[in-house]
Amino acid sequence: MYSHKLLKPDGRQLTLYSRYPISQDITATSPSNEPVQANPHLRWHPLRGEWVAYASHRQGRTFMPPPEYNPLAPTSNREFPTELPQGKYDIAVFDNRFPSMAVTANNPPASIVETLPANGACEVVVFTQNPNTSLSALALSHLELLLQVWGDRTREIGANPQIQYVLPFENKGVEVGVTLHHPHGQIYAYPFVPPVPAKMLEMQQQFYQEHQRGLLADLIEKEIADNQRIIYQDEEAIAFIPVCARYPYEVWLAPKQPVPTFHDLTAKQRQGLARALKTVTLKYDGLWNRPFPYLMAWFQAPTDGKAHPEAHLHAQFYPPYRTSDRLKYLAGTELAAGMFANDALPEDKAKDLQAVAVNIEMPVSA
């Protein structure tokens, strides 16, 4: 992996990553030269026992621009610079212009509940310079690079003592709220372990203390033995609809042998995960022969400097469709009670995806 760090005209950081050497003559660009003035803060929710972030400056963020004003495409006209410069590289990562958290946040407003500065980080990860592609169309070596990039960002962001948890994710499709169609994801880095990964880590810690082995590794063994819901597997990686899926086409993707973070993956594990990731996304797109929307979230160990043998790096995909023309809306029992109700059996939906033929070695776009 090659990387090149740059400073944008507005003071934000930009890092370019590539499978090949990167020219040192590339100059960073930005849609604006004005420094980002974000100062988000947190307010305590006393009934739920969790923090809520407030970032009112995000009301003005970019929303569904026409293709000719794509801020994530490389700059083609110096009069109208975008977030990315011209040059040969594969992936770009930069500080979000409209962050929900910022390491420089300070002086939160007083309130009737406790408040804190939202001292986190928000980065944009542009998967490719090509605006008309998706993860499913990228070369396996490109996806391996992406896994390395997530590892590098986890290491770098997590080195800040303010940061306790790094969460890479991708929102794909207008159905899940995407405002820019160019293939990209985000990284949110929190000053605490957020509620969802915190609960999963709690369950993993309990299991590890009782059995001296990982909870997800145990589930993976059982899924392999049951052999009903597996979407992909090789020696290093596996993808499956979990027996406990909350969404009809929910898929989990993981290395078979537990590692706590992206940075701990071996080269062979990255190769396996890349093949699993390409298979899952190809099957999604092939299911109804159209781009398939989803939220993809990667869960890993906290960056608190402690050992986490219970943690098992993995991705969870949450697709919003339950059939080709019906969305699964989160309503009363999900949002109010916190208990999901799934209208379809995971075994049946797994058969749908298993039946989709894919070729992960097929020609790909850049």
TrEMBL record:
Domain of life: Bacteria
Chemical reaction(s) catalysed: alpha-D-galactose 1-phosphate + UDP-alpha-D-glucose = alpha-D-glucose 1-phosphate + UDP-alpha-D-galactose
GO terms for cellular component: cytoplasm
Keyword Acetylation: no
A GO MF term: UDP-glucose:hexose-1-phosphate uridylyltransferase activity
Keyword Metal-binding: yes
CDD domains cross-referenced by the UniProt entry: GalT (cd00608)
Pathway stated in the Swiss-Prot or TrEMBL entry: Carbohydrate metabolism; galactose metabolism
Keywords, alphabetical: Carbohydrate metabolism, Galactose metabolism, Metal-binding, Nucleotidyltransferase, Transferase, Zinc
Pfam families in alphabetical order: GalP_UDP_tr_C, GalP_UDP_transf
Active site: 184
Domain annotation Galactose-1-phosphate uridyl transferase N-terminal: ranges: 38-194
GO BP terms in the entry: galactose catabolic process via UDP-galactose, Leloir pathway
Domain (Galactose-1-phosphate uridyl transferase C-terminal): residue spans on this chain: 202-357
InterPro entries referenced in this protein's UniProt entry, alphabetically: GalP_UDPtransf1 (IPR001937), GalP_UDPtransf1_His-AS (IPR019779), GalP_Utransf_C (IPR005850), GalP_Utransf_N (IPR005849), HIT-like_sf (IPR036265)
Cofactor(s) needed by this chain: Zn(2+)
EC number, as in UniProt: 2.7.7.12
Family recorded in the similarity comment: Belongs to the galactose-1-phosphate uridylyltransferase type 1 family.
Protein name: Galactose-1-phosphate uridylyltransferase
Native source species: Tolypothrix tenuis PCC 7101
